[in-house]
Specification:
The structure is a single chain. The protein is of the alpha/beta class. The protein has 2 domains: about 1-140 and about 285-300, Nucleotidyltransferase, domain 5; about 150-280, Nucleotidyltransferase, domain 5 (2-Layer Sandwich), CATH 3.30.420.40. Helices cover about 40% and strands about 25% of the residues. The protein is built from 12 helices and 15 strands. Helix 3 (about 80-95) packs across helix 4 and helix 5 crosses helix 11. The protein is globular, with a radius of gyration of 19 Å. The two termini are about 25 Å apart.
């Protein structure tokens, strides 16, 4: 009863807890927060001094007694206490710093996460004030966020290139048939600013277009090779009927890495599959948590906890 009463004072939220940036989706409001996954702490006491945008401003500019750190590494928690503090700050911020906050929280997690790492995410969100924590695998969230018909009896493939991991999955009948989490991503993804506007997004694309071919290949080739290998493995391991679907449908790209000029054509050439870049790749995972929240009774089976 107490938890139900607390829930009346807060909206359920979805969190894309990324290595580079954290996005928060509030039910019935959409994405309301995009900030760097950065926390500034006092070196001695580890007291949190700033989070998100304010903390990022301190990177490289802090005196000796202040350290600006990223508590997430390769899409998972590297520093439990600091991640908890960061989550608490973001949860309160989207609820206007209300002291009576106990939302149900959906957190997207990498498909290659261990049970220990998943438990750390859930405990961190619980300690940060969530009354209930549900986890959903990032590729499933991304697929929902870009509008793929995950409940159909046909294959849908998503390739989500984030700041810490690249997530690849084949989805059919609301389940993941095959998934691969590659803990490598292009450095250019880290450089994409939080709160990016459509104008800034075009600027990212244009800057990549003006980069030398050698520079772009240096950034993209190692990651592209790993993605191609994973896609080929997926095609080999999934049933022939699903592989046949993918020959026609190909796969959809999401995440900041999909903004790199030419990466869709490169992957299409290397895999032999059609490749489509989603309309809003930076928001795919966060939007997917929102789709899950808004249709939780129908989509409960796609959660990583069931």
């Amino acid at each position: 009863m107490f938890n139900q009463l607390l829930g009346l004072f807060s909206n359920d939220i979805g969190i894309d807890l990324g290595t580079a940036n954290t996005l928060v989706y509030v039910k019935d409001k959409g994405i309301v927060l995009r900030e760097p996954s950065v926390v500034a702490v006092h070196t001695g006491s580890r007291k949190v001094l700033a989070v998100g945008d304010e903390a990022k401003k301190m990177l490289g500019r802090t005196p000796g007694n202040i350290t600006a750190i990223r508590p997430m590494k390769d899409g998972v928690i590297a520093d439990f206490d600091i991640t908890e503090a960061m989550l608490r700050y973001f949860i309160k911020k989207v609820h206007n710093n209300s002291k009576i906050v106990s939302p149900r929280v959906v957190v997207a997690i990498p498909s290659g996460i261990t049970e220990v790492e998943k438990r750390a995410v859930k405990e961190s969100a619980t300690h940060a004030g969530a009354r209930e924590v549900i986890t959903i695998l990032e590729p499933m969230a991304a697929a929902l966020g870009v509008g793929l018909p995950v409940d159909e009896p046909a294959a849908n493939m998503i390739v989500d290139i984030g700041g810490g991991t690249t997530e690849i999955a084949i989805i059919s009948l609301s389940g993941i048939v095959f998934s691969k989490s590659i803990r490598v991503a292009p450095r250019v993804v880290i450089a994409i600013p939080s709160g990016i506007t459509e104008v800034e997004k075009r600027a990212v694309k244009e800057s990549a277009q003006h980069a030398g071919a050698r520079d772009v290949l240096t950034i993209v080739e190692p990651m592209a090779a790993a993605i191609v290998e994973a896609v080929r493995a997926a095609l080999e391991r999934c049933p022939p009927e699903l592989s046949a679907d993918l020959v026609d449908r190909g796969f959809v790209m999401a995440g900041g890495g999909s903004l790199i000029r030419g990466i869709d054509k490169l992957l299409s050439e290397k895999t032999g599959l059609p490749v489509t870049v989603s309309d809003d790749p930076l928001s795919a995972v966060a939007n997917g948590t929102g789709v899950f929240l808004n249709n939780i009774d129908e989509l409960y089976r796609v959660a990583a906890d069931f």
